[in-house]
Amino acid sequence: MSDDRFRALPSVEVLVQQTLALGRSEGVPRALVVEAARAVLDDERKAGAPAGLADGRAERAAARARALAAPVQRRVINATGVVLHTNLGRAPLSEAAQAALAAAAGGYVSLEYDIAEGRRSHRAVGVEAWLCRLTGAEAALAVNNGAAALLLVISALAQGRKVVVSRGELVEIGGSFRLPEILKKAGATLVEVGTTNRTRLDDYRRATTADTALILRVHPSNFRVSGFSERPTRAELAALAKETGIPFVEDVGSGAFVDTAEMGLEHEPTVLESLTEGADLVTFSGDKLLGGPQAGLVVGRREWIAALKRDPLARALRIDKLTVAALEATLAAYVDPERAKSELPTLALLAAEKHALEGQAHRLRDALSGLSGLAVTVVPVQSEVGGGALPGVPRLRSNDD
Ligand SMILES: *Cc1c(COP(=O)(O)O)cnc(C)c1O
Fold first, then answer.
1. Which of these three, 342, 370, 392, is where a domain ends?
2. Residues 65 and 97 in one domain
């Protein structure tokens, strides 16, 4: 019985012919029509070739072929209320960054060439110059993402040695990025100090030995410890680092260059305050609160940045010309913080007033209510920043302000 059913299935070639004859897969390469026909027949065979599937089989193959030919990554509307949504590509780029990307994409660029001097140069010197200009850091480096930045710092400065971290900061950022595992992968030994809720300067002091390579502070960006909790200030850690000659590194995560408190949000540590309060190196992401492309940025002391650049991992983690173009254009906006707030979509969205969002919601409702079967109403909600920044902090302080 079931054998007969399988015999009733057409061959792949016959289904391909039927599919092409429909004319609904125009422009789709034949190889994809073949793949789609094979997949449709496989599905039917797996389902035990139930009767009645012959109808519409070619249509299904055509639809599948069209889907195979379309890009998997497509434009979407972010209606989640989360501004920095990792699943949706985090920060949307500014117009200047988009233009810079497009200009770099189709041609040749001076990626590692100094046009004025007429000789070879280094990658991303423009990005590094902007980072130093904006933060006052001695030196800077850009790599692929925040996780890569931390991996490189530990690999270059602490391989085979010890890194002191508070138990309250042994974070998982998501997507299996766990601090203890990163340390292990980079070849360093983790020395945990303090407790989940309380770590004191003395805990750090007692843990530092001749074999300590780094004091690492990690911003608990995606969760909050409140209540009976304490950790030393940056200035205290910086003083201990100076006294012991051990570099003090801070991973601030989201890379805020403007104070989020000015936008009606809770304060998120800025790169500048981490540096001025004494961190020797600060690492952060390019596509969170900075509002740029995916990247991992490191700023700080010249000698440590030089050590990062010498590490073989730096070559494996380096950014490409597209990221350089988008980063330079994004950073340039911060020369005037007010300009950054209006030009960079991430900041503009976070700073948007409730009435502006309401107007947008009403326009969207009007556009959608043209679609039959949809009942659309606008309701006030509390949205989130996302991207591991300001957890549990609604984008609007309340619906009444
Ligand atoms: C987001 C985050 C990272 C990882 O950065 P990616 O750019 O996503 O790789 C690392 N540390 C902290 C504290 C973060 O918030």
1. 342
2. no
Name residues contacting ligand 1 (CB within 6 A). Answer: 145-147, 173, 177, 218-219, 221, 251, 253-254, 285, 296, 388
The verdict on 101 and 238 lying in the same domain is yes
CATH number at residue 320: 3.40.640.10
Distance 254 CA to ligand 1 centre (A): 7
In this predicted structure, the answer to whether residue 338 has a pLDDT above a threshold of 50 is: yes
The residue whose CB lies within 8 Å of the most ligand 1 atoms, and thus the one to mutate among 151, 251, 284, is: 251
Q: Which tens digit of pLDDT belongs to each residue from 74-125?
A: 999 888 889 999 999 999 999 999 999 999 999 999 999 999 999 999 999 9
Q: Is residue 349 part of a domain?
A: no
Confidence (pLDDT) at 225: 81
Same domain, 184 and 246: yes
Tell me the sheet residues that pair with 143: 296, 318
User: Are 210 and 303 contained in the same domain?
Assistant: yes
Q: What is the pLDDT of residues 20-66, one digit of tens each?
A: 999 999 999 999 999 999 999 999 999 888 877 788 999 999 999 99
- Do both 50 and 159 map to the same domain? no
86 CA: nearest ligand 1 atom: 8
Is 350 a member of any domain?
no
Residue 385 pLDDT: 79
Q: Please state, in angstroms and as integers, the Cα–Cα distance from residue 129 to each residue in 122, 244, 280, 299, 327, following that order.
A: 12, 30, 18, 11, 11
Average the pLDDT over 139-148 and give the result.
97
Three-state SS at 280: coil
Q: Which atom of ligand 1 is nearest to the CA of 222?
A: 15
Q: How many helices (H) and strands (E) does the chain have?
A: 17, 14
Please compute the mean of the pLDDT values over residues 166-181 and round it to a whole number.
88
Provide the residue range defining the domain that includes 112: 91-342
Two structure tokens written together for 175: 């997507």
Distance CA 389, CA 288 (A): 8
Question: What is the pTM (predicted TM-score) of this model?
Answer: 0.90
For strand 212-218 and strand 248-253, is the pairing parallel, antiparallel, or unpaired?
Answer: parallel
Please check whether residues 149 and 183 belong to one and the same domain: yes
Assess contact for 288 and 90: CB atoms under 8 A.
yes
